[in-house]
Predict the structure.
Amino acid sequence: MINFARQYLGTDYVWGGTTPRQGFDCSGYIQYVYHKFNIKIPRTTAHYPSLYGNKVSINDAQVGDLIIFTGTNPKIRKPGHAGIITKVGDGKLSFIHSSSSKKHFGVSETDYYKSGYPKRFLTVVRM
């Protein structure tokens, strides 16, 4: 799954986007990748932790799990962004996502602990 997901590194971020040609928003990208592996997933990030999958602690995260974050305002503790975990272990955690950030625009892979995402972390979901 991760090798497939990485094929789209550099694809543009497009709000509402669901295909490589069109571009992806975060949930469109995740849905596209999971669909390839016959895993049904909701279209919007808001539904990931409440309707689908099982919540697990970040310490129990596995490659392929979803990592869920707030939107850009970490004070609003509702899901607003997500990625697919690509690496775990020995104090490392990376995830692939489609970001609207100027620093990480489009599909990119991010080192969780070397980013601003820990303050936005909500949960990990295993589908």
